[in-house]
Amino acid sequence: MADIQSPVPGTFYHRPSPEDAAFKSAGDSVAVGDTIGLVEVMKSFIEVQAEEAGTFAGYEIENEAPVSAGDVLAKLK
After folding, report:
1. Fold of 2-76
2. What pTM was computed for the model?
3. Which residues, listed in sequence order, are joined to residue 50 by a DSSP beta bridge?
């Protein structure tokens, strides 16, 4: 399994907006560069992108949870 980590501290979001579906669901294919979430830092949103291809195993952090740089946000199979 590969880990997708937070690049910066902030608030992690599974969705681009509250009314949209999550970027990825368990079992989805993931390509290098796919966005799997957003981290908000001081009203700026930073895309969290996959650095490896695989199958999305799931989020490790709840939606809208605070994160630190290096925290594992999601896992790939």
Report:
1. OB fold (Dihydrolipoamide Acetyltransferase, E2P) (2.40.50)
2. 0.91
3. none
Q: Is the model's pLDDT at 12 over the cut of 90? A: yes
Exposure class string for 24-35: b at 16+ Cβ within 10 A, else e? beeeeebeeebe
What residue segments make up the domains of the chain, in order of their start? 2-76
Residues 2/74, Cβ–Cβ less than 8 Å: no
Residue type, 15: R
- Count Cβ atoms within 10 A of the Cβ of residue 1 and give its class: 0-12 exposed, 13-18 middle, 19 or more buried: exposed
Beta strands in the chain (DSSP E): 2-5, 10-13, 29-30, 35-41, 44-49, 54-59, 65-67, 72-76
Residue 25 has pLDDT above 90, yes or no: yes
